[in-house]
């Protein structure tokens, strides 16, 4: 809580307000997708692995010492080494593009596959991105029965009470969620996020080709499933003074013909727009997303930024910065 002019408490900013402020301050709607492939890391970043290894090793050894564990097994050492290289790569990407983006979107599976060292790398990356003034959108597409959904919310944004004190979660500013288990699976996620000024981006009409198999299905009411989900997201969201709601929607940029209808159904909902670049989406086609204002549309790009050097011949960091800046200028000019 903050203080009002008369000394009384005032509500903390909602995620919609925080997002609006961040976009205005950084003059960017671009989100850097972070989905590192250990086989395709930037060479210069690998050269900096020793520094990252030291960061992870210190955290990892402290945890093992507290648990009374023996020295790490060979498999754990390999994971730790890989996670250190991934951490160095991700820090290098953030250093390269931070001035041109408003947020990062780490894909949780890319870190979870590395076990405990991977999650530690994710925690370091989350902290580092926030030190650079960036929002962190955790892309895990969580969704389950209410008791499990509550645990997911604690893991990502909140904290878990225990006899030894509260255990902090990842500290993300928002995360993605799968709504196909229904409203009661979303409500604990929304509650956990809202209590910490965080947001939730609910899958509504995704960018992958197979989305049509399910999300385009026609219901008995005559509407398509994604239209029904859009209504649900609109109902769940709450707007702050800036007018933007705290519950957003994932609306793929590869199907721009749906955006006008989605905006009609969710007039004040922030849209997370994956599919630009490597998936074939085009920024010019997503203009309807920005109808409520610049912060109402977040354009995500990952491979097109991380791999930009493959087409240009520039260094990975220079090419990534140039591509992020190009996308920033395009998106900013639409709103």
Automatic annotation (TrEMBL):
Under the heading CDD domains, the entry gives: OMP_decarboxylase_like (cd04725)
User: Which parts of the sequence belong to the Orotidine 5'-phosphate decarboxylase domain?
Assistant: 29-323
Q: Which domain of life is it from?
A: Bacteria
Under the heading PROSITE patterns, the entry gives: OMPDECASE
- Does the record bear Lyase in its keywords? yes
- Record EC number: 4.1.1.23
What Pfam families does this protein's entry cite?
A: OMPdecase (PF00215)
Q: Pathway of this protein?
A: Pyrimidine metabolism; UMP biosynthesis via de novo pathway; UMP from orotate: step 2/2
**Catalytic function, reaction form:** orotidine 5'-phosphate + H(+) = UMP + CO2
Keyword Cell membrane tagged: no
- InterPro entries registered for this protein in UniProt: Aldolase_TIM, OMPdecase_AS, OMPdecase_type-2, OMPdeCOase_dom, RibuloseP-bd_barrel
Q: List the GO molecular function terms.
A: orotidine-5'-phosphate decarboxylase activity
Q: Which residues form the active site?
A: 141
Keyword field: Decarboxylase, Lyase, Pyrimidine biosynthesis
Q: Gene3D superfamilies from the xrefs?
A: Aldolase class I
> Which portions of the sequence form the region Disordered?
1-20
Enzyme class, top EC level, equals lyase
- NCBIfam families tied to this protein: pyrF_sub2
* Similarity remark: Belongs to the OMP decarboxylase family. Type 2 subfamily.
* PANTHER family registered for this protein in UniProt: OROTIDINE 5'-PHOSPHATE DECARBOXYLASE (PTHR43375:SF1)
Protein name per Swiss-Prot or TrEMBL: Orotidine 5'-phosphate decarboxylase
Organism listed in the record: Solirubrobacter deserti
């Amino acid at each position: 809580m903050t203080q009002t002019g008369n000394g009384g408490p005032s509500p903390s900013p909602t995620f919609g307000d925080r997002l609006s402020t961040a976009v205005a301050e950084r003059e960017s709607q671009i989100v850097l997708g972070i989905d590192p492939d250990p086989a395709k890391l930037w060479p210069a970043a690998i050269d900096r692995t020793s520094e990252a290894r030291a960061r992870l090793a210190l955290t990892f050894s402290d945890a093992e010492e507290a648990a009374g564990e023996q020295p790490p097994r060979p498999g754990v050492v390999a994971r730790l080494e890989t996670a250190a290289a991934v951490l160095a790569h991700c820090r290098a990407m953030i250093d390269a593009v931070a001035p041109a983006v408003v947020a990062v979107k780490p894909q949780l599976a890319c870190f979870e596959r590395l076990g405990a060292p991977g999650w530690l790398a994710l925690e370091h990356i989350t902290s580092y991105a926030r030190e650079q003034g960036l929002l962190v959108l955790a892309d895990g597409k969580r969704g389950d029965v209410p008791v499990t959904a509550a645990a997911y919310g604690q893991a990502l944004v909140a904290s878990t009470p225990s006899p030894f004190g509260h255990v902090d979660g990842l500290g993300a500013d928002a995360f993605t969620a799968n709504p196909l288990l229904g409203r009661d699976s979303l409500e604990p996620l929304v509650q956990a996020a809202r209590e910490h000024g965080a947001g939730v981006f609910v899958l509504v009409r995704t960018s992958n080709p197979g989305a049509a198999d399910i999300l385009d299905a026609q219901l008995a009411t005559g509407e398509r499933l994604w239209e029904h989900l859009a209504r649900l997201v609109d109902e769940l969201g709450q707007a702050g003074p800036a007018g933007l709601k705290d519950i957003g929607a994932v609306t793929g940029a590869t199907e721009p013909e749906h955006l006008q209808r989605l905006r009609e159904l969710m007039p004040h909902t922030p849209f997370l727009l994956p599919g630009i670049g490597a998936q074939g989406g085009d920024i010019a086609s997503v203009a309807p997303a920005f109808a409520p204002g610049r912060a109402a549309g977040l354009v995500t790009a990952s491979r097109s930024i991380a791999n930009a050097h493959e087409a240009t011949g520039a260094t990975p960091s220079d090419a990534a910065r140039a591509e992020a800046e190009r996308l920033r200028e395009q998106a900013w000019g639409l709103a």
